[in-house]
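Lab notebook page, bench 4
Experiment: in silico fold of construct C2
Operator: M.H.
Input chain length: 144 residues
Purpose: comparison with the prior construct
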Amino acid sequence: MYRRILVPLENSRTDDVIVAHATALARHCGASIVLIHVADGFAARNLEQLNLRESEEIRRDRDYLDAVVARIAADGFPVEAVLASGEPANEICAAAVREQCDLIAMGTHGHRLVKDILYGSVANEVRHQSMVPVLLVREPQQAP
């Protein structure tokens, strides 16, 4: 069914939900997992053009990815990580092709209208851009 699953992470609560779902799916399919985090701060977006040194943001992102990789690998899954910079939806779609993934499994916050207009929706952009199938898993809502 699936051989390589790309799992975008954003260093939020939603990551735990999608990682649990993706690892269960990977176990079922015998797939490997490729994690991606897209750093999108000013330094990350302009690292190469301005010949900047790696920022604290990127170091934290790399440490976070390494910790998630270690946790997944400890459960016996083949897992890799990609730290990208730029526009998240574009980088996720490009990584899916470059890394030869046959599924993108993303967590969503379940924002509605106003928050999507204010914050945008990376998941929505990916779902429209990607030629690779996209699985969206919504983060459970917190009790009020």
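Observations: The longest strand covers residues 32-39. The beta strands are 4-9, 32-39, 79-85, 103-108, 134-138.
Next step: discuss at group meeting.
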